[in-house]
Structure formats: structure tokens, C-alpha cells
Design brief:
globular; four-stranded antiparallel β-sheet; about 25% helix
Length: about 325
């Protein structure tokens, strides 16, 4: 675990699970693969990645498909006395199919036993998260209450989702007829977390969350009323960084920001990524191109007024200003 994190929307990371597999286009240039390669000298990460397809810069790393659970890392958050906001499994996915339910239960045992911390659980597999919330967690809770067996970390099981555990899912664009977006968010709606959040990073296309931001959901008969409480408490947006990064059209980010403002939901703009808006009115430098609303890179002049000029300038230079200001909104009572 890292007691400090460079990820802008958290304070620390905790990795009781390492390794993963790709499930959607947003995984194509996964930062965790590159970081696992750099950390391959460490036993937790050794052998998790191999050399992938050749490129002009060498070989791209790729997951081997192995996912590892690390029982020795379970007690790490309990050693921290000062309250922290902790991103769980930044180098994997806690709800990967290779992670046993029993081990996920142990992770939740630790989180429930340390209410001073706030835990952010982000998954691309919210269907498995919903199943855990509806069936696995209550079953383990009832079993614990029926026995006198002490829990490993001195906590107590509760059938309700721990209030200090936020539940989130990742999205990147509306692809496959929007089916993946609907499926992931409908699964997230079934998780009774105090804070449900969505991370749209890398943002690879437009995303319409209106249905989940404004409508709410009737959990009894799965109907969608015209008005109701939002099932989403927080939205994170970010462009892609690193080798092979794809540009993010500025209007995609603006649209999602506007959706959040209309619904009164906190909006966090993390970064532009490798590509940033080009503001100069002069000739385009070689590293600048026009980007279409469809994400296509225009070689040469723009085709219509919806194209935006973006420069491949690097994450630091691109920054995190959207329409001239930072957006660092957090759920009520958290952050600034």
C-alpha cells in the first residue's frame, strides 16, 4: 500500500489483489499494466505482465491473465491511525472473477473494522459487486452472527453495506449500442452504498448519464420514474495519458459537467491527459491536430465547427483546467 497517492481524487492506495485482464476499450492502455512492469522486481507484481505486441518503441507490456490475492496485505489499513481516503485495488479489480468471494469478504471485514477510513472501491465488473452486496455479504454476516467465532481483524459483520465504503464503476464511452453503459450502471444501482460514483477515464467518447443522475430507480420493480434521487453521488472525468493515449474531445467533458451541474452532483475533472486544448490562433504545430466529435484525428484542417484543436503536449503541460478553471468537487463532507 502507498500511504500517499498521486491520484488526484484519493489520498492513498491499498492493493490486497494484483493482476487483471482487459474487458473493454478503456483497458487498452491500462496504467496498471505499465506500473506492474516497472514494479516487476517486487514479489507482488513479478510475472503479472509479459511483453506484448511490438511497437516502434519496443514491446508493449500485457497482462498474463494471472490474478493474485495477498492475505499478508489485508491488515495494512489497520496500521494507519490517521483517517485516510483509500483507493482499493488500484492495481487490479477487487471484483475480478478470479478473486474468491471469501477473500472479498475479508477485504470488507477490514474496511468495516476501520470506519475512520473512507474506502473507494472502483470496478469494471459491477455485476459481481452487486451479487456480493445482495447475496454474499448478507450470508457471511448472518453466519458470523450465528457463531462466536471472532473475526480476524476484531470487527463485526453487518448485513448492510459499510457506510465508509464507496462503490464505483468505470466507463469510457457509449459503445456497443450503449449496452455496456446501461449494464454497468444498472448493476451499480443495486449496490446499497452511501456513495456511488462513476469514473469516466479514459474518456473515449460522449457519455450520457442523465437517466441515472436525474431519474433514480425503483428497486422494487426496476421502473424508472421521471423524478427521483440520483443513484450517482459523484462523477470523475479524465483523458488518457501514457503511450498510445487517445485524445478527449472537450465537448464530451463539458457535456458531462453540465449534466452533473443540472443534477447537483459533484463533478471532478482529473486531467486532460496526454492531449490538451491548443489555444494559439497561429499555424498548427506538428503535434497538434483537430479532433472530431467521433474521436477521429483530422490530419490537416478541421472539417466542421464541432472539431477542436488538441495538442499532444504531455499530461503535465495539458493540465486540468476545463473552461479556465479546475473542477475538484467531492461528495458532501469529503475533500474540498
Amino acid at each position: 500500500m502507498a500511504d500517499k497517492s498521486k491520484i488526484e481524487w484519493t489520498e492513498a492506495t491499498w492493493n490486497p489483489v494484483t493482476g487483471c485482464t482487459k474487458v473493454s476499450p478503456g483497458c487498452d492502455h491500462c496504467y496498471a499494466i505499465r506500473m506492474s512492469q516497472r514494479l516487476s522486481h517486487h514479489p507482488k507484481y513479478r510475472g503479472l505482465v509479459v511483453q506484448g505486441e511490438p511497437t516502434k518503441d519496443g514491446f508493449t507490456p500485457e497482462w498474463t491473465g494471472e490474478v493474485r490475492c495477498h492475505p499478508e496485505a489485508l491488515d495494512e489499513p489497520l496500521r494507519w491511525k490517521k483517517p485516510k481516503t483509500i483507493f482499493v485495488c488500484s492495481m487490479s479489480d477487487l471484483f475480478h472473477s478470479q478473486v474468491p468471494w471469501e477473500f472479498i469478504g475479508k477485504v470488507f471485514d477490514v474496511m468495516a473494522a476501520s470506519p475512520r477510513h473512507t474506502y473507494q472501491v472502483l470496478t469494471k465488473r459491477p455485476g459481481r459487486m452487486a451479487h456480493f452486496a445482495e447475496h454474499i455479504w448478507p450470508k457471511q454476516a448472518n453466519q458470523a452472527h450465528r457463531t462466536t467465532r471472532p473475526l480476524a481483524w476484531g470487527g463485526t459483520w453487518e448485513a448492510t453495506w459499510p457506510p465508509n465504503v464507496w462503490a464505483g464503476t468505470s466507463l469510457e464511452q457509449e459503445w456497443d449500442g450503449q449496452r455496456h453503459l446501461v449494464k454497468r450502471l444498472d448493476c451499480l444501482a443495486r449496490v446499497p452504498a452511501k456513495v456511488r460514483f462513476v469514473s469516466v477515464e479514459p474518456m473515449l467518447g460522449p457519455v450520457d448519464l442523465t437517466r441515472w443522475l436525474l431519474g433514480g430507480v425503483d428497486m422494487t420493480n426496476w421502473s424508472w420514474p421521471e423524478e427521483g434521487p440520483s443513484i450517482i453521488s459523484w462523477v470523475i472525468v479524465g483523458g488518457e495519458s501514457g503511450p498510445g493515449a487517445r485524445p478527449m474531445h472537450a465537448d464530451w467533458a463539458r457535456s458531462l459537467r453540465n449534466q452533473c451541474q443540472e443534477a447537483g452532483v459533484p463533478f471532478f475533472f482529473k486531467q486532460w491527459g496526454q492531449w490538451g486544448p491548443f489555444r494559439d490562433n497561429g499555424p498548427l504545430p506538428p503535434n497538434c491536430h483537430y479532433i472530431g466529435l467521433d474521436g477521429a484525428i483530422r490530419i490537416g484542417d478541421y472539417e466542421d465547427d464541432t472539431d477542436v484543436c488538441m495538442g499532444r503536449v504531455g499530461k503535465k503541460a495539458a493540465g486540468a483546467l476545463l473552461d479556465g478553471r479546475e473542477w475538484r468537487e467531492m461528495p458532501a463532507g469529503e475533500g474540498s
